[in-house]
Automatic annotation (TrEMBL):
The lineage of its organism: Bacteria, Pseudomonadati, Pseudomonadota, Betaproteobacteria, Burkholderiales. The keyword Signal applies. It comes from Noviherbaspirillum suwonense. The keyword Signal applies. Pfam families: YceI. This is Polyisoprenoid-binding protein YceI. Keywords: Signal.
Length: 195
């Protein structure tokens, strides 16, 4: 009985170890962001913070270099004109000079300066965030979601990054705090294809 139990436990441990190995880090190389499977979200407190409101940007592009932490890089470009709250009038207001001023500042971008990931694929990515014509250092929490082959056999990797910024730091102070809070949660979900 004990031998059978130990044997089952050993087999379970081997299976678990095999699964852990399957979740290994993404293969090194340059990856291009797949815009069809990547998105940038923002969430803000509405009406002085009585509720949470979320919007997204539909046009995202960029590139990743997956290597050792010292050589890895992330570059993301988001067209602010692609803002989508499911409400046309609000989208128009967000594109106006009150908020993003999409005509004068068409791009939100992030370029990494340092990446740290542990063995579980969790860590941080520090870099420069440019929004509304202002560039500030921001550190995102970073997590590798997975890696493997896509439906057509191409090598892919997925990450999610999240951070909280103050929009007033980027010159977007309209309606603080009555219309919307100063703190904005940002989240970027990335799926990228190896080149």
């Amino acid at each position: 009985m004990k031998k059978a139990l130990l044997s089952r436990l050993s087999l379970s441990f081997i299976a678990l170890a095999a699964l852990s190995g399957a979740a290994a880090a993404a293969p090194a190389g340059t990856y291009k962001i797949d815009p069809a499977h990547s998105v940038a979200y923002f969430e803000v407190g509405h009406a002085g913070g009585i509720s949470r409101f979320m919007g997204r940007f539909n046009d995202i592009a960029g590139e990743l270099v997956v290597d050792t932490p010292e050589k890895s890089k992330i570059k993301v470009d988001v067209k602010v004109d692609s803002v989508d709250t499911r409400t046309e009038a609000l989208d128009k207001h967000l594109k106006s000079p009150d908020f993003f001023n999409a005509v004068q500042f068409p791009m939100l971008s992030f370029a990494s300066t340092a990446i740290a990931l542990n063995g579980s694929g969790e860590g941080t990515v520090a870099g420069n965030l440019t929004l509304h014509g202002v560039t500030k250092p921001v550190t995102f929490k970073l997590k590798e979601i997975g890696s493997g082959n896509g439906p057509r056999g191409d090598a892919r990797v997925g990450y999610t990054a999240s951070a909280t910024i103050k929009r007033s730091d980027f010159g977007i102070a309209y309606g603080i705090p009555k219309a919307a809070t100063d703190d904005v949660d940002l989240r970027i979900n990335i799926e990228a294809i190896k080149q």
